[in-house]
Amino acid sequence: MAEIQLKNLRHSYYPNPKTDADYALKEVDLVWEEGLAYALLGPSGSGKTTMLNILSGLLSASEGQVLFDGRDVTTLEARDRNIAQVFQFPVIYETMTVEENLAFPLKTRKIPTAQIKERVHFIAAELGLTSLLKRKARGLSAEQKQRISLGRGLVREDVAAILLDEPLTVIDPAEKMALRRTLKAVQLHLGVKLIYVTHDQHEAMTLADRVVVMDDGEVVQVGSPEELFANPAHKFVGYFIGTPGMNFIDCQLAEDMLIVGQTRYKLDAVTAKKLAMQSGGLSFGIRPDFLTLGAEQPGFSIPGTVVRMENHGDEHIIAVDIGGSQMLARVEDSVCADVGDAVHLIPSGEAIRIFAGQHVVPLPQTTFGGSS
Ligand SMILES: Nc1ncnc2c1ncn2[C@@H]1O[C@H](COP(=O)(O)OP(=O)(O)OP(=O)(O)O)[C@@H](O)[C@H]1O
Q1: Which of 240, 177, 306, 265 is nearest to 43 (CA)?
Q2: Ligand 1: centre distance to CA 53 (Å)
Q3: Which distant-in-sequence residues (6+ apart) come within 8 Å of 41 by Cβ?
Q4: Which of the four, 54, 119, 134, 214, has the lowest number of CB atoms within 10 Å?
Q5: 181 CA distance to ligand 1 middle (Å)
Q6: What is d(CA 93, CA 289) in angstroms, rounded to the nearest whole number?
Q7: E-strand spans in 98-246?
Q8: In the chain, how long is the greatest CA-to-CA distance?
Q9: Which residues of the chain have a pLDDT value below 70?
Q10: Does 45 sit in the ligand 1 pocket, CB within 6 Å?
Q11: What pLDDT, on a 0 to 100 scale, did the predictor assign at position 78?
Q12: What was the ipTM of the complex prediction?
């Protein structure tokens, strides 16, 4: 497995790109560390498949370099890059047995037969395919076929990375979880680098050590699932990750006061000065998970009126109008409130984030009374 680096990479599908909007991938500089599972997460059209195809060599980037362990592979064809790719639809030979399918990539590399057999049996065991080895691939379920596709990638010991492009799309919902669990177990056990494209945050968060979040051709943040949830560096990460996403409320600075709805937060002089220097409008960000309802706390709680309640069984999502904008709070079932009630939202001080334009402003955790 190799460390993969993308250097000053840009890609446009147009012959003469002029503006940023002509690029499907804008400036990307990224290192994919050895042995980790990565998810490439973003909405449709954000550039995930373009990035994956540039990594594999199926697509040649308009600008920049691709390095495997420091070696420049930018101009190498896909077959010379030692990359295995698993697509949405299984790519297997239907008339071959499972064993023959798994052995195929090794046979073409003239590996000795005994060695092939040993490796095929090892990988089949990893993927739960042992009992199917003598079966023809035709007639197996989509989930089993996708395991074979994955096995055809894993069977080679020299692969630099396994790239998976939404591999669970055609899998029955009931079987998705099992395959996802197998993928994670195989990745941990064999230490392979997986790069997994998805637009499903749940899939990304459960599978990956690092999530690369993309929006409109740009990598907006790379981090562990926990980091992205706790510390979104970009507004897009705040609302794309988490269900529901982060609340963003436009706010104003008036000397050393930050005005959020009807609440005026007193800031220390350093923070007030830092916020005054920002360009781009300020917004107050807090996840619904870190808001509760409670008694008024002057200068801290945010007053509003409940406009909607969604019952999720063991919890409620409550929408509160705070004077022209809405905040969502995720509260326990035992919290009593009704549509039309006047309430006070109590934020967790350490979970408040301030954004200028699209980007978070780094502030000490204690700014809003959180613990240090
Ligand atoms: N062959 C192509 N020719 C022209 N434009 C393309 C081509 N392939 C992709 N694009 C454009 O490049 C941008 C990024 O597309 P890409 O397929 O990489 O996004 P994605 O995040 O993988 O989306 P999806 O989840 O829908 O597959 C989109 O605007 C898309 O329309």
Answers
A1: 240
A2: 11
A3: 48, 198, 199, 200, 201, 204, 211, 212, 213, 214, 240
A4: 134
A5: 29
A6: 48
A7: 161-165, 194-198, 210-215, 218-223
A8: 77
A9: 1, 334, 370-372
A10: yes
A11: 85
A12: 0.98
Beta 194-198 vs 161-165: how paired, if at all? parallel
User: To test ligand 1's pocket by mutation, which of 9, 11, 26, 46 has the most ligand atoms within 8 angstroms of CB?
Assistant: 46
50 touches ligand 1 (CB under 6 Å):
yes
CATH architecture entry for 4-236 = 3-Layer(aba) Sandwich (3.40)
Rounded to whole angstroms, the Cα distance separating 60 from 337 reads: 57
Ligand 1 pocket member 7 (CB < 6 A): no
Domain limits, the chain? 4-236, 245-360
Superfamily of domain 245-360: Nucleic acid-binding proteins (2.40.50.140)
User: Is 14 near ligand 1, meaning CB less than 6 Å away?
Assistant: no
> CA 304 to CA 261: how far, in whole Å?
9
Are the C-beta atoms of residues 62 and 18 closer than 8 Å to each other? Answer: no
Q: Which residue has the CA at smallest separation from atom 16 of ligand 1?
A: 47
